[in-house]
What does this fold into?
Amino acid sequence: MDPVKVEVFLQTLIAGILLGGLYALIGLGMTLIMGVMRIINLAHGELMMVAMYMAYWLFTLLHIDPYLAVFIVAPAMFFFGMAIQRFLINPVLRVEAILPENQVILTVGIGMVLSNLATIMFTSDYRSTPVEYASDAWYLSDLWRSSPIELSFSVPWVVSFLFAVVITALLWYFLTRTDTGKSIRATAQDRDAALLMGVNVERMKLLTFGLGASLVGAAGCLFIPLYYLYPALGGRFTLIAFVITILGGLGSTVGAIIGGVLLGVFESMTATYLGMGWAPVGRFIIFVAALVFLPGGIASVLRRRRLGG
Amino acid sequence: MRGLVPIAGIILLALLPLVGLSTYMMHILILVIMWSVIGMAWNLLGGYCGQVSFGHAAFFGTGAYTAGILYLKLGVSAWWGFPLSIVVVGVMALIIGFICLRLRGPFFALATLAMGEVLRVTAENLRGFTNGTLGILIQKRTWVEKTWYYYIILAIAVFTFLLIRRLVNSRLGYYFLAIREDQDAAESLGINTTLYKTVALLISAILTGFAGVFYMNYMGYIDPEIVYALHDISIITIMVVMVGGVATFWGPAVGALIMVLLAELIRSLPRIGTAHQSLFGILLILIIIFLPNGIVGDFPKLKTILRRRA
Amino acid sequence: MRPLLELKGVSKFFGGLAALVDVSFTVNEGEVVGLIGPNGAGKTTLFNVINGFYKPSKGEVYFDGKRISGLRPHRICRLGVARTFQVVKPLQRLTVIDNVMASAFLRSPSRQEALERAEKILHFVGLYEDRETVSKNLPLGKRKKLEIARALATEPKLLLLDESFAGLNPKEQAEMIETIKKINREGVTILIIEHHMRVIMSISNRVVVLNYGEKIAEGSPQEVASSPEVIKAYLGETAVA
It folds into this structure.
């Protein structure tokens, strides 16, 4: 084996896993909303874009580090998400229309407004957040002197990834160990049954949308040290979140995590071996393959295993 | 009497260029009619058959690229795109249908959206074939004047209108509606839902492809960002139908008129121009909340509201 | 008597859960067979298997001598099996007549023919006066009738009725019994899921009893009503019969 090739492969794999961890966070928000509300939130990426601008301005004006900004932006997005749910989505749920997809189209409208308002307020310039550790990296040879190959670990990527892991763990704790979390899961599983058991379904919907928004908001802060920011970036991340949701299995949190990592690795591989321009195509190939060969997503595979059927 | 309204309308539209409209007015009219075609095509699949597509740009763009590549690679007139697009767009629709039609409701919508994006990215990357992001430019358009373009798109629109009206009133139309209302019930009452959904998609796609072929010939320039655009084609298509009226014969035309005029109006306003997406988005939100069946579909409701005010 | 519908060892599993276990029985031409059992006994699942929504995990279903298990629902309907749903599924925003026409097109491709057939059927079930009503505005009793009218419009040889009586008042129930008897007299074989024992006793020639996905009894209504197994299955459930 050519050590250079091994290095490239491993480096690509690491980049993919790091990216995948962040993707998982974005996908989690969408899949939660999907599970509880049966709505696909097509403004998901735009919500992230809004969060990124918050983090950007917090850094530029107040010199607050993006990783600290998570603790300001995520709660802010929580309330922003709840407001969208309360004042825009809820009214539409009650409207009688021929096409039930109205709700999805509504979120498209919200996304359009958000990205356009961002263009008007902040222009369509590309912005980056010049954190001083932006290009720092750890090297494998620092840890292991006699390593036959050299791998680098970008500091902001690793820190963002670790943040994503911690947030995911907290979310898991919230959903499985707290009463509110359990109520949210019950609502996702069977709304009518949850209602009969005394769960306040309306409140759960509100909380879930807020939670979904704050998760993607946190992801936005974690992306800020890594990516350029511009108003139209939301659409791309909406699609990514959706692909993860389908790949993971609708409404499945574990599926979303695995799906996010898989997608990250796959994209990173296509970018390295086929060229940057094809990375989005790789994303869609995974998406189509999941639709055709794995209709229930990763969640259905997990379920089959568990039941031994 | 009612049957005469469309005929009178067509005659009126056919005579319109004789009045001597300005080039700009003709351009607006042509755009309105083109969007009516796309809207009617979408409406067949979305409004009548209940399969909401978020990716009609896939068919529009493929139609446009069929015409463009004929010109670019074979040196043939882009007008030959019309016959050829039936095959190319048809095959595309079958492939997309095979992948997406097994999904229901919002999942179908999103899958089609992804398909449109796949085609856009593919067109951007297959540079040797499509010229990539440089796009395709027709050096010399067939006519400088607008009149012929007007009659061609009008003919396509009339054909589309009559075809769809005929389909909707036939056995097929009943099957489409049955599928929209309840797929399981339709299937258990002997309707081959997969087949008829595919038929609706196929017809809708080919008609949308015609609009794309026309666009290439008329505008003389395309690139992937323009013809495979998510917002400016796929979403606007949905808006045209939602504003006008889902599952109505005249809704798409009304919606196209309003949307094109609105777009022009907004563009002409200094400073507000950049906000056009916000305004469209707000319009979309308002329509969904207050007129979920569009202007034509909720016309009775609109009338009572207006009367109460008066 | 000629067997029309034959189930041979039909089982259906969902994951590790068994909804139907080795169910076999026959419905003969011209019969009215009642399918009863406590809630969750697998009755509707059995309908879904017969009508093609589910493929049986094991076993086969024969209709008119032809194997139908594994075919898609619309193919099975075309062969002559129509069904109604426990939760009625009319085409909400269409009028009553359009609802029936949508199914009538299966056997009569021309619009005129379909219209005539639809009108005849609406007369038959007593919905002709409501033909222009949008079906979501119908009261439940009439929606149940519409459900039957739509199924009849496909000209079935076998009609599967899923709880056509649930939620009806006594007068509507009596009408429904008459309608079903009338359909049967026209030569349509009927397999009916029902909770009301009185109804089952008055219209069925034979009764099949399911419990936990298994067939526990089969016979004339009297035989079944006195079977100790059946009584045991129902005790604690509801004190019926």
Summary: Chain C is about 35% helix and 25% strand.
